[in-house]
Specification:
Elements: H1 5-17, E1 27-33, E2 38-44, E3 49-55, H2 59-62, H3 65-68, H4 71-88, E4 94-97, H5 106-116
Parallel strand pairs: 1-4
Antiparallel strand pairs: 1-2, 2-3
């Protein structure tokens, strides 16, 4: 039986999640990437709550501005926003959960923008 790319990504993500866990000291910065959008959340795994989130689905990014920007530029904006919101919520240190995606392209752009925004990982 041939596995689909989505099934392979989920297997990789499960393998990563065995080691990556968001504690009270270091919350988890989780990334989900679809073909059109990218989403980032800061999650406290001890209680299972999302503290902050940002995505390209937000109204100001969707209203015409995203057509002018590349997907990498949009990912950088999401990374900056999630960093700003996390710092406002008192979160400085996180562990990065790439969600089974390669650390490349949009995922890398989001991570680097979040680091420049002040998150430590």
């Amino acid at each position: 039986m041939k596995r689909t790319p989505r099934q392979l990504r989920i297997r990789r993500h499960n393998r990563i999640r065995k080691r990556v866990f968001g504690s009270k000291e270091r919350l988890r910065l989780s990334v989900f990437r679809s073909n059109m959008h990218i989403y980032a959340q800061v999650i406290d795994d001890t209680i299972g709550h999302t503290l902050v989130a940002a995505s390209t689905m937000e109204a100001d990014l969707r209203n015409g501005a995203d057509e002018e920007k590349s997907k990498i530029q949009q990912a950088q904006i999401v990374g900056q926003r999630v960093a700003e919101r996390a710092l406002a919520a008192g979160v400085k240190k996180v562990v990065f959960d790439r969600g089974g995606y390669k650390y490349h392209g949009r995922v890398k752009a989001l991570a680097e923008a979040a680091r420049e925004g002040g998150l430590d990982f």
